[in-house]
Amino acid sequence: MDKIEVRGARTHNLKNINLVIPRDKLIVVTGLSGSGKSSLAFDTLYAEGQRRYVESLSAYARQFLSLMEKPDVDHIEGLSPAISIEQKSTSHNPRSTVGTITEIHDYLRLLFARVGEPRCPDHDVPLAAQTVSQMVDNVLSQPEGKRLMLLAPIIKERKGEHTKTLENLASQGYIRARIDGEVCDLSDPPKLELQKKHTIEVVIDRFKVRNDLSQRLAESFETALELSGGTAVVADMDDEKAEELLFSANFACP
């Protein structure tokens, strides 16, 4: 059953309406004041769902529950037991939520914690802290012979000339950096515009994928993560449009 069918609903403001509502979807009922929104949602769908549920219980259980009046409707099909939360204060506790009121908060917390996968809302990538070994294995899974370079992001979309940053990198022995998408020699870096946002990534290593690179890559990744504060990028040297590999040692979007 993938829909709820309502036929001949006449509860309160409803004028003998027929309606088909998809199940397992978020449905919004909207309209002018007095158009019958509450009559449909609360006084028809909820009332009938609750009434059917109570009727399915044993006579002993029913004596502790109040049976709702049958709504003025010809037929409703596909309706499950319903929960209704009206838009009004039902508790004096200002920290009450839908989850606490319906007593599903603890279950939802466990569900999201154990089954859910946190994702970055901006880039839609999974959020997970990776170890150096996992990063190395990911790189070595690329086609053998592929030319790649390992980058450490230092500046991300920040305004400024960043002259001191580039000078410090050169003094530490780094030879190249990718500045705004272009690989440049740090001995003669380009002059950056003060009021423009720039991205600076230091080239930590350049290599061809081989199975015997594990130790070298591990050391390079450790250097990149220490320099950048926990993130690293692996880019294709022959195809600028190829998708880059993003790595993070932090539980955050790289």
From TrEMBL:
<dbReference type="GO" id="GO:0005737">
    <property type="term" value="C:cytoplasm"/>
</dbReference>
<dbReference type="InterPro" id="IPR027417">
    <property type="entry name" value="P-loop_NTPase"/>
</dbReference>
<dbReference type="GO" id="GO:0009432">
    <property type="term" value="P:SOS response"/>
</dbReference>
<feature type="domain" description="UvrA interaction">
    <location>
        <begin position="130"/>
        <end position="237"/>
    </location>
</feature>
<dbReference type="GO" id="GO:0005524">
    <property type="term" value="F:ATP binding"/>
</dbReference>
<dbReference type="Pfam" id="PF17760">
    <property type="entry name" value="UvrA_inter"/>
</dbReference>
<dbReference type="GO" id="GO:0004518">
    <property type="term" value="F:nuclease activity"/>
</dbReference>
<keyword id="KW-0677">Repeat</keyword>
<keyword id="KW-0234">DNA repair</keyword>
<comment type="similarity">
    <text>Belongs to the ABC transporter superfamily. UvrA family.</text>
</comment>
<keyword id="KW-0227">DNA damage</keyword>
<protein>
    <recommendedName>
        <fullName>UvrABC system protein A</fullName>
    </recommendedName>
</protein>
<keyword id="KW-0547">Nucleotide-binding</keyword>
<dbReference type="GO" id="GO:0006281">
    <property type="term" value="P:DNA repair"/>
</dbReference>
<keyword id="KW-0067">ATP-binding</keyword>
<keyword id="KW-0238">DNA-binding</keyword>
<dbReference type="GO" id="GO:0003677">
    <property type="term" value="F:DNA binding"/>
</dbReference>
<keyword id="KW-0963">Cytoplasm</keyword>
<keyword id="KW-0267">Excision nuclease</keyword>
<keyword id="KW-0228">DNA excision</keyword>
<keyword id="KW-0742">SOS response</keyword>
<dbReference type="InterPro" id="IPR041102">
    <property type="entry name" value="UvrA_inter"/>
</dbReference>
